[in-house]
Amino acid sequence: MMEMTAKSKKLLHAQVEALLRKVEHFNKTEIENLILMFNTLMAEQVSRGRPANGLKRGKFRGVLQGTFEMTNAVMMDGVFRSFDTDGDGVIILEEWIRGLSVFLRGTLEEKIKHSFRVYDLNNDKYISKDEIFHMLKHSFIKWPSEEDPDEGIKDVVEITMKKMDLDHDGLLSYEDFQKSVLDENLFLQAFGPCLPEDATIEKFEEVVFKEPEQ
Q: Is the dihedral of CA 95, 101, 102, 108 positive or negative?
């Protein structure tokens, strides 16, 4: 890795100090390492014309696939939306650090908010039956069968809505989703895997948060 200039070190220090005041769950060294990882990803990101001011969807998807072992395209798009809080189509440094703080070490409440954003495909603050059907269709393993798989998925959607639609309006609001997950934690990833496995998190932290050798 190239030696950092005095100017680069000063900028890194300022970024770390600013993010420490804004983001929970990470210490100074961890934030510094995540900034360096972000900078490396940005440098690798090939873009024609004007450089992007953040990680684009394709580059971010590569991280989800290669680092966090995610394969479901619908879920990866949802995780991108969850990280991209201002909806401008790229993930800037602060969104990267904030997103990872929840992704890796979030409280249950933070993870509930993340999962809801992932599952709210059209960002209208509700999860509809159509959205659940679409997500489950991309999450279920397709087995050879004479039965129409769509019918089985529709049955699961109806059963799930009966359990989670607490105000019986045909839609899952954040309140419905939150109460359902607090009641039964398995509902946190009811419509597809949108958080990394514990073993994957452990592997990531061992590599990225490793203390530098003296």
A: negative
